[in-house]
């Protein structure tokens, strides 16, 4: 056994032990696809200061990083192209998703021979290669929005011997030229489901996508596409964290502090610390304000305040030391969060599987099986 074969066998072993690699057909794909080809020499490593720094790996480091089931090599930060060793950045914008998550999602996709798959978010190209190995090059379309990322993925796919249809473009529009698909899989997260994905999926087909919320935390949903142009499905038990589809990123609004003035305040009934960093609860808390963006502000004394803002001009600030909140604009964003949180706690903190999403051409909404719904601004 060469050392690369040994690495690949180790990866398969890790995935089997983790209980995520159960299907022999996916196992054969993982055993075949050379993941090291999809991890570039230059990757971004996270430092203690919260910044990423570009580092060049030697061959052994690259193999170690590529073949660990639970490591996600970050391959691009802040949409930077032509990065050099030592460059620094804040926000990962592309990666070779950790194999454990890639394989979990591929198994959840429930593909069978002969099916056509549309992948949104090519990234490194590794998951597209697995799909091509499993289903055949002609059955796979993969869309990447960033031309530099797409070019690198194209090279890696060629080196590895796969030729899926690689499209550079906005995956929110799907890829109508290749439709209809039996499966759509998004490897970037969305606040709601772009309707083009439903339109381009055959009735009876499935859409698998990570759902994002304003607090940056996510659930994984699988929708059945019906013959009447609608789709619906429940969240899967596993929560995941993915980079956003570009159009669903936080808006990056100018500083709103001046707009805020001195509005009336009230005590909070929910401290953001109760859910921040706790993926699924944070996604639930964000449901009534899915279009809003959250950020943390620091006062001169380093005290934290929590900001929530939306395109309709709604702006709420939660003052953590004072445990109070105030808002301007049409919606009391924090009040809405508190209301949903109160409901969730009183309902006994129901889990992901009890939530779902329904998508129609006109509107879409998240529902809980008890009957409560949250309209999405799609
Ligand atoms: C987590 S990475 C994908 C990982 C990849 N599937 C793999 O196996 O390596 C997410 C990718 O989605 C891409 N992306 C973001 N918005 C997109 C969009 N609107 N259309 C297509 N791709 C998009 C990003 O550029 C990034 O490369």
List keywords for this structure.
methyltransferase; alpha+beta; 10-stranded mixed beta sheet; S-adenosyl-L-methionine; 378 residues; globular; binds S-adenosylmethionine; 5-stranded antiparallel beta sheet; 10 helices; 2 domains; Rossmann fold
Bound molecules: S-adenosylmethionine
Overall mean pLDDT stands at: 94
Give the topology string: H per helix, E per strand: HHEEHEEEHEHEHEEHEEEHEHEEEEHEEE
Helix content: 25-40%
Number of domains: 2
CATH fold type of the largest domain? Rossmann fold
Terminal CA distance reads 52 Å
| Count of individual beta strands | 20
**Assembly annotation:** single chain
Number of helices: 10
What class would the helix/strand composition place it in? alpha+beta
Kindly report the spatial arrangement of strands forming the biggest sheet. Answer: 8-7-6-9-10-11-12-18-19-20
CATH architecture of the largest domain: 3-Layer(aba) Sandwich
CATH class of the largest domain: Alpha Beta
Poorly predicted ranges: none
Proportion of beta-strand residues: 25-35%
CATH superfamily of the largest domain: Vaccinia Virus protein VP39
Q: Report the biggest beta sheet as strand number plus sense, adding barrel if it closes.
A: 10 strands, mixed
**For the CA atoms, what is the radius of gyration?**
21 Å
Tell me, briefly, the overall form.
globular
């Amino acid at each position: 056994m060469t050392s690369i074969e040994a690495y690949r066998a180790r990866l398969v072993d890790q995935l089997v032990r983790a209980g995520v690699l159960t299907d022999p057909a996916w196992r054969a794909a993982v055993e075949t696809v050379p993941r090291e080809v999809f991890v570039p020499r230059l990757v971004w490593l996270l430092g203690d200061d919260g910044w990423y720094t570009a580092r060049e790996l030697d061959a052994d480091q690259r193999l170690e990083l590529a073949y660990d089931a639970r490591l996600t090599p970050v391959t691009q930060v802040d949409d930077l192209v032509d990065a050099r060793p030592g460059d620094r950045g804040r926000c990962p914008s592309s990666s070779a998703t950790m194999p454990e998550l890639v394989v979990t999602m591929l198994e959840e996709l429930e593909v069978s021979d002969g099916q056509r798959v549309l992948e949104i978010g090519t990234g490194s190209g590794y998951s597209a290669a697995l799909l091509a190995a499993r289903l055949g090059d002609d059955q796979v379309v993969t869309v990447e929005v960033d031309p530099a990322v797409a070019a690198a993925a194209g090279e890696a796919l060629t080196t590895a011997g796969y030729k899926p249809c690689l499209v550079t473009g906005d995956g929110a529009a799907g890829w109508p030229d290749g439709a209809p698909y039996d499966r759509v899989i998004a490897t970037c997260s969305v606040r709601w489901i772009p309707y083009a994905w439903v339109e381009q999926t055959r009735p009876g087909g499935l859409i698998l996508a990570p759902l994002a919320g304003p607090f940056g935390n996510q659930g994984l949903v699988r929708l059945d596409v019906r013959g009447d142009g609608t789709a619906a499905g429940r969240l899967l038990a596993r929560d995941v964290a993915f980079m956003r589809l570009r159009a669903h990123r936080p808006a990056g609004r100018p500083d709103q502090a001046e707009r805020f003035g001195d509005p009336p305040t009230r005590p909070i009934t929910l401290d953001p610390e109760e859910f921040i960093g706790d993926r699924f609860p944070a996604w639930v808390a964000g449901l009534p304000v899915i279009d809003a963006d959250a950020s943390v502000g620091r006062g001169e004394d380093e005290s934290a305040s929590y900001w929530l803002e939306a395109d309709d001009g709604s702006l709420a600030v939660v003052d953590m030391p004072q445990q109070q909140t105030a808002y301007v604009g049409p919606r009391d964003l924090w009040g809405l969060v508190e209301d949903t949180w109160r409901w969730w706690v009183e309902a006994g903190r129901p889990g992901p599987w009890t939530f779902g999403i329904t998508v129609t051409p006109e509107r879409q909404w998240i529902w809980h099986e008890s009957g409560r719904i949250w309209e999405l601004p799609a």
